[in-house]
Amino acid sequence: MSEKELNNGASMEEEKISKDFIRQIIDEDLKEGKNDGRVHTRFPPEPNGYLHIGHAKSICLNFGLAKEYGGKCNLRFDDTNPVKEDVEYVDSIKEDVRWLGFDWEDREFYASDYFDKLYEYAEDLIKQGKAFIDSCSAEEMKEHRGTPTQPGTESPYRNRPVEENLDLFRRMKAGEFKEGEHILRAKIDMSSPNMNLRDPAIYRIKHASHHRTGEKWCIYPMYDWAHGQSDALEMITHSICTLEFENHRPLYDWCLEQLNVPSNPRQIEFARLNLNYTIMSKRKLLELVQGKYVDGWDDPRMPTISGLRRRGYTPESIRNFSEGVGVAKRNNIIDIAKLEWAVREDMNKRAQRAMAVLKPLKLTLTNYPEDLVEEIEAVNNPEDESMGTRMVPFSRNLFIERDDFMEDPPRKFFRLAPGREVRLRYGYIIKCEEVVKDPGTGEVIELLCTYDPETRSGTGTSTRKVKGTIHWVSAGHAINAEVRLYDRLFNHENPAGDKEGRDFKEFINPDSLEILENCKLEPYLKDMKTGDKCQFERLGYFCVDTKYTTKEKLVFNRTVTLRDTWAKISKQK
RNA sequence: UGUCCCGUGGUGUAAUUGGCAACACGUCUGACUCUGGAUCAGAAGUCUCCAGGUUCGAGUCCUGGCGGGACAACCA
């Protein structure tokens, strides 16, 4: 390649890079020499639930930014509300972030690490006369707050002397009061059009045990008092959060302005990820789990990271998806097809292929020798020659997919039908000579076919063309497995945002899980381990379930179907 | 009758910061094919929410509308 071409290539590539608004902000900050040229982000989940695909977007953004700019990204648990939080969630979050492929190194932090400091900051604010102890009830406070269109009124306790505030606050800390008796509020502006500035609560009494600090505290900082300060203490430069915190930014900045903090983080808000046919709120996901509508947080139908993992999604596909959706400030609902595309894209290149019959139909080759077993060579992955080939046993008695036979086929059905020919993948061309039915029910129970010995695949003699190729498994060699097919959990495109206000649970898809007990797999698959993935040819990508697989029984989850043109054609009818 | 944020093909994101609206997913053709997969080639679809204004020139700037979202936890 000439130097000119190289230059062109480089400049063209640079031209192609269009940066999202966050990267543009960071570029500007860097250009202006802010933060000594550092980029330091953080991913700050509250450990009150499992992470979902929306968090994945945030994780990829925060850790991705740090990587791109040669900076760092912290993992910080925003654990300021002990009654909702639990170590179970801490552990799952760490597992999920790690699984996605990100490393916070030694920077695992907790807002609770800063409780002492946050308390000091609060005393500081009181001493400055910018915070006061309110002794109103929650109801009274609510009345005083006003509405978005009407200003609030000041609390009768607002002008308590500093010394009294300090004394009360210390006694709150010492546990002298019951929950709700007193509360620390910042003294800002009760008539602010921004509700967050109407003397927001910053410290409340909670006689609750905290999953990390135990009984040490009975007062806990509110999010607004903890988050910015935690960012500053961790020397975060860009504090990236979702849109609903936009109105909190003035408060975030206000808090930091009052205090002598070690750095000056900047909050930036972006639009959270939404997927159609999916819910994405922790509260609602929790409801599904607790109401046993699903099998747990890691149910393969859940949009949680652990659910997607169990379903067979790869970290690469989720990262790729997260980057593909982009970052902006407008509300969005992304088509679930985009997520599915991302796994297919990844799996197509890497997945071992194999044959599996999910709904078996007996097929006998009447002109094939009774005791002959041939070993047929099959390609492991047409996309990757280095994965080699394997041998598959072929015999007189086979199983094929029920869906691959129709007694009275419609137009454009290329598969097996009475009198029709089809190729058995990697094997021979066969012809359906006779259909055997159950005399009672009339159900098709067996196909009697003949094979053409001249047409074995790979022999060079198989010049005949047939329209269809179907997969199969030798009945005498097949191994049994259970296969679980998943469909979307909701029938409603936007279950949480129904125009008529109906509850999201009304839209649960009753057919989202189909369990097939009697599936037949080619023997090559017998050593598959939990979590292993492969493609069942013509059917989709599958993985061995981590929960229900036992020594005796293999259980597969269908991650996603293959793109299915026939399904589209037949649905149109 | 508030404040803040946001309006670009079906969906999502761009547009070198004022210069012929592009990319991805989806959709539809066709080629190829021993996976109705993959791959390849191609097509349709946005005149940028509306109305004014500034300008030689506006998706981009200004004004006014309209529409959507967030905010009235001692949640985060």
Task: Give a written overview of the molecule.
The strands form 6 sheets. The protein has a 7-stranded mixed β-sheet, covered by helices on one side. Strands 19-16-17-18-12-15-20 form a 7-stranded mixed β-sheet, with no helix packed on it. Helix content is 28%, strand content 22%. A hairpin with a 6-residue loop joins strand 17 and strand 18 (444-452). By secondary structure, it is of the alpha/beta class. Helix 12 crosses helix 13. It has 14 helices and 25 strands. It has helices at 3-16, 21-31, 53-68, 87-99, 115-127, 138-145, 162-174, 223-233, 249-258, 282-290, 305-311, 315-325, 336-350, 565-572, and strands at residues 40-43, 72-77, 108-110, 131-134, 183-186, 201-205, 219-221, 238-242, 266-270, 352-354, 356-357, 360-365, 374-379, 389-394, 397-401, 421-424, 429-437, 444-452, 469-470, 472-474, 479-486, 513-521, 533-536, 540-544, 554-561. The chain binds one RNA strand of 76 nucleotides through helix 1, helix 6, strand 6, helix 8 and helix 13.
The overall strand count is 25
Quaternary organization: single chain
Low-confidence region ranges: 1-15
Strand order of the largest sheet: 10-23-24-25-21-22-11
Instruction: Give the integer mean of the pLDDT values.
Output: 94
Measured distance between first and last alpha carbons? 54 Å
The number of distinct helices, counting runs of at least 4 residues, comes to 14
Radius of gyration: 31 Å
What's the story with the biggest beta sheet? 7 strands, mixed
Strand content: 15-25%
